[in-house]
Amino acid sequence: xxxxxxxxxxxxxxxxxxxxxxxxxxxxxxxxxxxxxxxxxxxxxxxxxxxxxxxxxxxxxxxxxxxxxxxxxxxxxxxxxxxxxxxxxxxxxxxxxxxxxxxxxxxxxxxxxxxxxxxxxxxxxxxxxxxxxxxxxxxxxxxxxxxxxxxxxxxxxxxxxxxxxxxxxxxxxxxxxxxxxxxxxxxxxxxxxxxxxxxxxxxxxxxxxxxxxxxxxxxxxxxxxxxxxxxxxxxxxxxxxxxxxxxxxxxxxxxxxxxxxxxxxxxxxxxxxxxxxxxxxxxxxxxxxxxxxxxxxxxxxxxxxxxxxxxxxxxxxxxxxxxxxxxxxxxxxxxxxxxxxxx
Length: 343
Description:
Blueprint: H1 8-11, E1 25-29, E2 33-38, E3 41-46, H2 55-71, E4 79-86, E5 89-92, E6 98-107, H3 115-120, H4 126-141, H5 155-169, H6 175-195, H7 197-205, E7 209-211, E8 221-224, E9 227-230, E10 242-244, H8 246-258, H9 262-276, H10 281-307, H11 312-335
Antiparallel strand pairs: 1-2, 2-3, 3-6, 4-5, 4-6, 7-10, 8-9
């Protein structure tokens, strides 16, 4: 990741760099991007790092994020523009000079209407989750992958994702803390995936493995009136986004549960099932909930290290403990499955 601030940051804080001379510009930095809120428009620039090591790679993934953004937000416009360096300075969407960056340009949405803000202020309600569930189900219905394209949704690929998350846990905590959690999760999860490999295959053939959002967190969901926007779809690794539709559902549910919003999580699930008519969803959901809880825990650990914020340690453990809770649900399901042993 970038260790020094790019020279264009200060230039983009001034209206002269923009073609429409915005009156108000707000700069925001995230772990992976630089954001410029310029009046009615938002400009997003990916930081240089392991995932975006060159300008050419940035262009590819900037355009892919733009494509996914419009796929998940019908009747919405986003575009890729360039940031050019000229003799007189930097210019967004210019045609002269050398291309410095590829920039994703989209509508600047009010921060107070993001689901994360609504939850924090206790203003999120069932109606909000209903809108999100219905739109997600509609998008998933148009996102089914072919059997060849959806290989990442197969049981053995999902197993590898879970194994990776269990391995990552060991990097951040003493084994005396994580090993008991790993032991409680691994056996039922492995047995579940093995015993239901036919379900994974069936759902792939039925189009339930989709080009998912991949990062369906409250900070990426904007709700205003009857309009829902899904932002920041995962554009880099398909193994994290081309998965069963249960992955997007589980991602949001896990966050809501940790935020003590179990009723909203249950409501979201119910409305998604109704809108998608996915009768088999709950046959596979506990495994994806376990995986998502593990993933949230690992990502929280990564943030803890990056930000040097020790307060995130207990949050990560909360996610890992939630994964064990879901694994108990898996164990109960397995007790109802009769698996014939060879004689």
